[in-house]
């Protein structure tokens, strides 16, 4: 499998993380005063106390996991027969109180990703990119989206789930308008929840990383219900969302609960034209990792039916993170058609690959 | 069916709300300065914009729903053949910044409940009560629990899920020690989430009641994971919790996710002696209302198996609230043994009735 020539059909991996080998790679794209101020980003108080990156993913030269495209190909892409990898860089720009700084860091990550991972001249790129935005300044984020529209290998916009308001609220609409205009889905990824300027979506701060990480799903549940009840998909009929790393098994119960409430409370949300859950198939997708894996495989297969996985679920590995889902072992044996949908066709269609 | 004499076997309803007919009924039990300050409590900005109480539950004399024991018996207890009703008054004392005021209001509700709904001299009371506490002051809450220990008809302690810190954290332990000492489970009920001094368990404030109400489950998920990861059930082996009105369908996925994380991160929580989910059966129960009801009955039956409903689920109606679950219609047809467990035996055993 090579970068040139038509790529063989294989797995589409919807969540792979490329990292700069050194912060100077990002500083290179920043102007002052941001260049001097930039010290990288991270979760700070919710850092993984064991290892957030797979130890075996460190590069042969000792660089950070995910920082060497050649090694990433050998260690992940070629090993599993991956046809395309959707790259989600970790800029952590949503941490910053200063929206100008946040916007500058987002732009720097986009320039870095375009220059180092996405070859504009290669029609058949293995890697597809995400446009990082700082949702603190929706107008600036919309401009950043415009800046990359037309690039052949950026396939979506991305932001972290950490926020100061649920994502269905109207201050964010310039972002969704730009996404819809250019056909970019918005990918939401965890990482800044409860840190920096962002609100923690639990009743107070969790104590441990295991607790914080397990409960990341509460941010995703909140944002999804907000999108649905605020009527974002009525206002922007072309707008689409993909929830990455937020889990999937909470979806059926949450939609049942929301649909039930809608029957009693539709008076509040008259802009909805159908049951809230009925917007999912046209507008929302889920990346699978970390798939919640029960000891009883049947239970997962039942959940897959409840969430309509054949339509909305797309495989993701989260390489090179500690909770990586192996394409070989993350799922139990699936019916062939469902397997094809999850590991290839749903993403191919969603991203128009 | 009468209050005197052995009650017939029927449904045990784990969530019925008694209301004072007038705030003066509560003021009667308050001393100054609290008596003058008390103006009732509520959710304020997240009030139900339609009707929070069933319109048909207003009393014949025009009083608030749930305020007349005789009418409640006729309209709910006798209609469905309810053997026991666990009463959860709505004091909303967790709203107050002043822990002395909060503690006084909690105590007043307990006195009011004991005098008006729980007949100490009747051995076979239809109604069983909950001891309201203000978790803002755990030491005072423990004293309030002590005050009622030995009363024949208080069967649990209760607090709202709205909080400033997850309930597994150690500042709350005097409450759990008192609960464990006297064999009282702690019931957690929604209602003050995101209002008063309490943190909203979503990334920022929801816009609508439908959104806030649908997402109440995030508080419950957070508190449960906190109990489990902090090792509360190792520290207090006799301590038990019942989650009321927080939903149940999120449980399987959340436990799968937590158990998976435990395998990678057990280093952080060395006090756990088994998988986090393995503590549920001995320590945690769920009241069913509002049961998430899918259009496909099989899906709910599958969820029931995943959560081990035959062990941990107890029927609740939430009378007289808008989203009341009818004992007749809330569930699809259940296997006889499972029905018996959910509608009677699990609660009988949990509350030692």
UniProtKB/TrEMBL annotation, chains A, B:
The UniProt transmembrane annotation reads: none
Protein name, entry field? Amidohydrolase
SUPFAM superfamilies, per the entry: Metallo-dependent hydrolases
The record's Gene Ontology cellular component field reads:
cytoplasm
Recorded GO MF terms: carboxy-lyase activity; hydrolase activity
InterPro entries for the chain: ACMSD (IPR032465), Amidohydro-rel (IPR006680), Metal_Hydrolase (IPR032466)
Q: Which UniProt keywords apply?
A: Hydrolase, Lyase
**Pfam hit, one:** Amidohydro_2
Its domain of life? Bacteria
Identify the residues that the record assigns to the Amidohydrolase-related domain, covering every copy. Answer: 12-353
Q: Which GO terms describe its biological process?
A: secondary metabolic process
